[in-house]
Structure formats: structure tokens, C-alpha cells
Specification:
Elements (H helix, E strand, L loop, with lengths): L5 H24 L4 H7 L9 H13 L3 H8 L1 H20 L4 H15 L2 H12 L5 H29 L4 H4 L1 H12 L16 H20 L9 H23 L13 H31 L4 H27 L4 H19 L9 H26 L7 H40 L6 H10 L5 H40 L7 H8 L5
Helix pairs in contact: 1-7, 1-8, 1-10, 3-6, 3-11, 3-17, 4-5, 5-6, 5-7, 5-10, 8-14, 11-12, 11-17, 13-14, 13-16, 13-17, 13-19, 14-16, 15-16, 15-19, 16-20, 17-19
Family: Belongs to the major facilitator superfamily. EmrB family.
Pfam family, one: MFS_1
Protein name: MFS transporter
Length: 511
């Protein structure tokens, strides 16, 4: 495809961008609708996060198969089927009337969406000559960053003006146009001798990761190991992952080549991106629940105040790419990004129910700068010591850890929010009793008298909101600690031998 005409390259670029933006947009557009979906689907704040985690678990499971599928069916065929499946499952998500339904269709949506970004990137790289591939990846990178910017705002607008179901229906026009354009582009990537698929390893990975996610997501509401279900899921997760590791190290064609983790930079970098995924996706869960549930923002307003995080990330990514091109040590850029991310998150731990909109916008923007400065340089560091022939397999491990870290992070953050909210409720509710002198003084100062109306006001309004804010602050503190844990990890990464490594590796971002 390197010899494609400018007109053909434009068609390929638009087709790929539509497909990728549709998939990336879906990661963020749903967040601001979670509060509305929770009421409509009769779910609590812990259960509704399954709408996000089911999608990401499906991504984690299917992502390692992308290269094998392309070898068998070709890039265009995979993209066409992925777009069709993604749109159909989006419609089914919009038609859901229970939590079980939407979780099932979101899982299906994640299966079809997993291949869109990596295959789309490969098509873009093949369509442009080698001297313009950096430009192609910059265009694609801008499209990817539209998700965090447009997602919350568009999702909020659709939820307020129509309903939460339209955050899924909006994929229909994107998908139809992407499908029509994708049919006109040349095919590629299909092999006459495709590698065999290790279905045993794939099954073990799916069982291990799925059980782990289920254990983390259901543990809090089922009282952890007092539940037989949680015990079974834990055993399945441990055995599934242990046998998956054994299988990956013993078969010549594993689904994920874990032998590459002997490379120090790849192993530490993958661990780092997993923790980073916790911070990124954990924040995306906390903010909309806080803004809409506690601050009483409308969905559109919540989307607007969350958009600066994406803007900050986009600006920082462009700056990081330029610094890498000038030979700046990627480790230094990552460390600066961690400082920005940690500082922006620390500011959120000072929140209360009376903060202004500016207190939401500026910490989000600062945190977004941190996200942008960490992402590309960390990818560069992770791949700097790998052989060129190992980079495709290494990219699968790296992105697997990023998505897995995000899905586990969502489950952990949701558990912390729910558990600490309950702790706060018990502690503050225990102070509301007729034997507490301070409680009587409070009633007198507030002009209230003991009675059913007062108990309702104090219990369901004041204590409820304060307890939920406590759970939210504890969840933000967990994200803050996540940034701090990254610092010692980054110090063990080797620096790339020269500036050219940074330029080369940036072009592979997102595979």
C-alpha cells in the first residue's frame, strides 16, 4: 500500500479514522451516562461499572488474537466484520432493559472493537511511504485523542437531550460510513501459511482473566471469601493464569509470548502501563459518578468539565513526541508526567461538596497533561531493548497489560468507593443518636427538632452525600498512590541508545 495515490490514502485515512474514533469514543462516551443507566437498569454504583469492565475484559481476551486473525482473513475483512459487529452490538446495548443484557452486549461490543485500533494502525502504516509514516501516526493519534475530549461532552449532550441509549446509537452513522469506505480500500496482511492458533492457551487465558475480573467486581457485594461464588472464581483465576503461563512458555506458537518478559524494559514497562491503566480508567469512573451523583451536575455539564483532561493529554502528547524527536531521555519525560498526574490527582483528594467548577476543571487538565506525558515515552522505553522482529509480539503484551490494568483498576476503584462509603455511613450515622450532646447542639444551631422529617434529612441527604464523598476521596487517594508507585519502576528502565529510537517507537503507538 506504500504506493497508494494521495486520493486513495485520503480514503484509507478517513475510513480508518472513522472506525478508530468510533471505538475510542465508546470508551469515554458511556461514562457520563452511568448514573442515568444505573437508575434505568436498577443497578448500584458498584454493579453499573460492569458496563465498562465487560467491554474491557473482552478487549483483553481478543487483542492477542488480532495478528493471527489478520494472517487468516486479511486486514480489510477483519475491519469490515469488526465494524459490522460493533454497530450491531451497539444497537443491542441501546435496546437493553436489564443489567445482564447490557453487560452481555457490551462484552460482544468489546470483542468486535478489540481489533479496530491495531489493524487500523497497520493499514495506515502500509498506505503511507516510510518518510510520511510519522505524519500518518500523528493523524491517527489526534483521532485517538478525540475520544477523551469529545466523549464526555457528546455523551452528556445526548443523555440530557435524548436518553442514555443514544450514546450507543450514535455509533450507527460512524459505522455505516466507515463500512462503505472500508470496502473500497485494498486488502493486505493475509498469509498463505498462517501461524496455528493455540486454542488451549487462549481458553486458559480467557478463563483466568474472566474469573479474576469477576472476583474483583463481585467481591465487595458478595462479602468476598464468605461467598462460595467468590471462592470458585478465585480458584479458577489462579489455576487459569498459572496454566496459561505454563502453556505460553512451553508451546512454540503461544497466544501471548511471555518469554519476551525476560527483557527488563518490556516487563517493567508493561507493569508500569498496567498501573497507569488503573489511574486512567479509575479516574474516568470516579469523576462522572461524583459530578452527577453528588454535585448534581447535568450529564452535559459533567461532560464539559471532564473534557479538559483530554485536551491536556492531547497537548502533552504532541509535546512529548516533539521532545522524543529531539533526543530527550524518555524516562525524564515520564517522570515529569507522573509528577503532573500525581499533583492533579492529589488536588482531587481535597474535594468537598461545596467545590466550584474550576476546582474540577484545573485538576483534570493538570492530570491530563500527566497522562499525555507518560503514555508515548513509556511505550518508547518498553520497546527500546527489543529486537525489531519481537516488537509485534511485545506490543501485544504491552497493550494487553494496559487494558487489563484498566479493567482491574475499574473494579478496584469501584470496590473502594462502595466499601469506604459504607464505612463513612456507619461512622457518621452512629453519631446521630439522642445520647450525643454534640448532636443536640447541632440540631439547635440548625433550627431542627427531633422527628421523622429531621431523621430523613440527616440520614438520606446529609449523611448519604458525605459518606459517598468520603468513598470518592478514598478512591482518588488510591489513584494518587498508583502514580507514586510508578516512580521507582521507571527508574529501573534503560534509556534508548539514541533519539532515533524514540522516533521509531512512537510510530508504533497503539498497536
Amino acid at each position: 500500500m506504500a504506493q497508494e495515490s494521495p486520493a486513495s490514502r485520503l480514503t484509507i485515512t478517513v475510513a480508518v479514522m472513522l472506525a478508530v474514533v468510533m471505538q475510542v469514543l465508546d470508551l469515554t462516551i458511556v461514562n457520563v451516562a452511568l448514573t442515568y443507566m444505573r437508575g434505568s437498569l436498577h443497578a448500584n454504583s458498584d454493579q453499573i461499572t460492569w458496563v465498562l469492565t465487560s467491554y474491557m475484559v473482552a478487549n483483553v481476551i481478543i487483542l492477542p488474537l488480532t495478528g493471527l486473525l489478520v494472517e487468516r482473513y486479511g486486514q480489510r475483512t477483519i475491519m469490515l466484520w469488526s465494524v459490522v459487529g460493533f454497530v450491531i452490538s451497539s444497537v443491542l446495548c441501546g435496546q437493553s432493559h436489564s443489567l445482564v443484557e447490557i453487560v452481555l452486549w457490551r462484552f460482544l461490543q468489546g470483542i468486535f472493537g478489540a481489533s479496530l485500533a491495531p489493524v487500523g494502525q497497520t493499514i495506515m502504516l502500509g498506505a503511507y511511504p516510510s518518510d510520511k509514516r510519522g505524519q500518518a501516526m500523528a493523524i491517527l493519534g489526534m483521532g485517538i485523542m478525540l475520544g477523551p475530549i469529545l466523549g464526555p461532552t457528546l455523551g452528556g449532550y445526548l443523555t440530557d437531550t435524548l436518553s442514555w441509549r443514544w450514546v450507543f446509537y450514535v455509533n450507527i452513522p460512524f459505522g455505516i460510513l466507515a463500512f462503505l469506505l472500508m470496502r473500497t480500500i485494498p486488502d493486505g496482511g493475509k498469509s498463505t501459511t498462517p501461524r496455528p492458533v493455540d486454542w488451549t492457551g487462549f481458553t486458559l487465558m480467557a478463563v483466568g482473566l474472566g474469573s479474576l475480573q469477576g472476583m474483583l467486581s463481585l467481591g465487595d457485594q458478595d462479602n468476598w471469601f464468605s461467598s462460595r461464588t467468590i471462592i470458585i472464581l478465585t480458584i479458577c483465576a489462579i489455576l487459569g493464569m498459572l496454566f496459561f503461563v505454563w502453556r505460553s512458555l512451553s508451546t512454540p506458537y503461544p497466544v501471548v509470548d511471555l518469554r519476551l518478559l525476560k527483557d527488563r524494559n518490556l516487563s517493567i514497562g508493561s507493569m508500569g502501563i498496567g498501573i497507569f491503566g488503573l489511574a486512567l480508567f479509575g479516574t474516568m469512573v470516579i469523576l462522572p459518578i461524583m459530578l452527577e451523583g453528588l454535585m448534581r451536575y447535568e450529564a452535559f455539564t459533567a461532560g464539559l468539565v471532564m473534557a479538559p483532561q483530554g485536551i491536556g493529554a492531547m497537548i502533552a502528547m504532541m509535546f512529548a513526541g516533539r521532545m522524543l524527536g529531539r533526543g530527550v531521555n524518555p524516562r525524564n519525560i515520564v517522570l515529569v508526567g507522573i509528577v503532573f498526574g500525581a499533583f492533579g490527582t492529589y488536588l482531587t483528594t481535597l474535594y468537598n461538596l461545596d467545590i466550584s467548577m474550576a476546582w474540577v476543571i484545573w485538576p483534570s487538565f493538570i492530570r491530563g497533561i500527566g497522562f499525555g506525558l507518560v503514555t508515548i515515552p513509556l511505550f518508547t522505553l518498553a520497546f527500546t531493548t527489543l529486537e525489531k522482529a519481537q516488537q509485534a509480539e511485545g506490543s501485544g503484551i504491552f497493550n494487553l497489560m494496559r487494558t487489563l490494568g484498566g479493567s482491574i483498576g475499574i473494579a478496584i476503584v469501584s470496590t473502594v468507593m462502595t466499601q469506604e462509603t459504607q464505612v463513612g455511613w456507619n461512622q457518621m450515622g452512629g453519631l446521630i443518636n439522642p445520647f450525643n450532646p454534640a448532636f443536640h447542639r447541632y440540631l439547635t444551631a440548625a433550627g431542627l427538632t427531633p422527628g421523622p422529617t429531621t431523621w430523613h434529612l440527616l440520614g438520606n441527604v446529609i449523611v448519604y452525600d458525605q459518606a459517598n464523598m468520603r468513598g470518592t476521596l478514598d478512591a482518588f487517594m488510591l489513584v494518587f498512590y498508583g502514580f507514586l508507585v510508578l516512580i521507582p519502576l521507571i527508574m529501573f528502565l534503560k534509556r534508548p541508545p539514541g533519539s532515533s529510537a524514540g522516533v521509531t517507537q512512537v510510530t508504533h503507538f497503539g498497536e
